[in-house]
Each structure stands twice: as C-alpha cells, then as structure tokens.
Design a protein that fits this description.
single chain
Length: 254
C-alpha cells in the first residue's frame, strides 16, 4: 500500500513523511486562525517540490479545510465583500500562473517565499491601508490576491489587508477568509485545468495529504477560543515569517 502511495505521489518515503507532518501542522494553524494553510506549506515544502507542483496539491488541501470550516464561515462572513473578492481574484489567477510557469524553478521558489515574508511582516506591523475600503480597493485587492495565489497560493493573506482596512471584528475576518478560500478554491479549479497545472500527481498528493490536513484543522478549531483570539494572529504571522525566511535561506544554499 505504501509503495503504491509513494509511486502515485512521486515522492520518496522521507519526502512523504515530511509533507505529512507539514500538512498536519498547517492544518492546525488553519483551523486556529482561519487562513495560512497554503502559506505555511509553501514556505516549508517548497524545498521539496517547486511551487508549480505544490499549487495543485494545495488546492485540495484548502478545499478539504474549507469544507470542515464552512458552516461558521458562511454564517458569520461578510458575504457581499467576499463575493467581490472572489470574482476579482479570477482575473488575477491566470496572470500569477503565467508568471510561475514562465520563471525558472529557483526564481519561482524565491518569489513565492518572498511574497509570504513581505505580507506576513506587513500584517504583523498592523499596516492598515484605509484607501482599500472602497469598490476600487475591493476589486483591486481581489485581483492582486489572484495573482499572488497563482504565484504562491497565499491570496488569503492579501485578502486580510482588505478586511483590516474595513475594521472588521476578528470573528468576521476569520469567517470571511474561510468563505473566500472555499469559493476561491472552487472557482480556481477551472483556471488550473486550463493551464494544465492540475495533473495526476497533483491530485494524488492533494487527496493523500488532505487526511492529515483535515485532522489538523479539527485540532486547530478546538484551540480557537475568545480567550486566545487576541494572540492567534500575531502567533501565526510570526511563525510564517520564520518558516519563509528559513525556506529562502535553504533555497539560496541549495
């Protein structure tokens, strides 16, 4: 059975075990914070697989996590805002994928990790771009989120900028991100298929690693309480910065 899984996922046993551990940890953070699953996996697993191979796998991980978290996300999210972001992101997705497919593998890795570092530091510094609280800001944010998703699959972090600018409560921010990631994943499948990115190995990896991811999400949801709400976001962003910087260093030394 294990040999079949390794053959289907095109991974060595060590790579498989590492990815299983990484997706479990990323699932815990996703269940706790409402986002950062793709960013965590991209920041760490990029030393094993190039971004273009991680993106289809991450589609399945995000979808499986979103299904588990969708109930609260649908009930508490700012739905009109989320719909606008998803529609605009569809414009940016093909641009981001084109960049990823056009760039050399090492450049793509460095770009993906650099995007994560910049976004995480900006959010940790509580950078609030008030001009985003407009129709132009809404759709502009969505397009940029789509481009970043195509490059590094971390569009959820870009979307968080818009939520911060609108001064949304923490529970609404978390729910809106959950709903955005669900709808964004569902709609982006067509783009991935058109670009030929969603191949057999991507599907196989996604389905296999969806299991530890979902287990992690269930654990992470148990950790999200009102008492810990003020701490969850700084913790996750600090962790992301550290992981992405480590990935950048390893990528440059490889």
């Amino acid at each position: 059975m294990m040999d079949w899984i390794l053959e289907a996922t095109e991974l060595s046993q060590d790579e498989f075990l590492i990815l299983a551990g990484l997706t479990l940890l990323a699932g815990i953070v996703r269940g706790f914070s409402g986002f950062a699953l793709s960013a965590m996996v991209m920041a760490t697993a990029v030393v094993i697989l190039p971004p273009i191979e991680l993106i289809p796998m991450l589609w399945w991980l995000e979808m499986s996590a979103s299904v588990l978290m969708l109930k609260n996300g649908w009930a508490e999210a700012d739905r009109p805002m989320t719909y606008g972001l998803v529609i605009a992101a569809l414009i940016g997705w093909p641009i981001g994928l084109w960049l990823t497919l056009s760039l050399p593998v090492e450049t793509s890795k460095a770009l993906a990790l650099s995007v994560i570092v910049v976004l995480a530091i900006s959010q940790l510094a509580n950078l609030k771009l008030t001009f985003l609280a407009s129709k132009a800001g809404l759709y502009g944010t969505g397009i940029i989120a789509g481009i970043v998703s195509g490059v590094a699959h971390v569009g959820g972090m870009v979307v968080a900028f818009y939520v911060l600018a609108a001064n949304q409560p923490a529970r609404v921010m978390r729910a809106s991100l959950v709903l955005y990631l669900f709808l964004g994943s569902a709609s982006s499948m067509l783009v991935l298929l058109l670009f030929g990115v969603m191949d057999f190995s991507g599907v196989s990896r996604g389905l296999v690693f969806a299991l530890p991811t979902m287990f992690g999400v269930l654990l992470g949801q148990q950790l999200f309480t009102e008492r810990l709400a003020p701490y969850y976001r700084p913790f996750c962003l600090t962790l992301l910065i550290g992981l992405a910087l480590l990935g950048l260093i390893r990528t440059q030394l490889a």
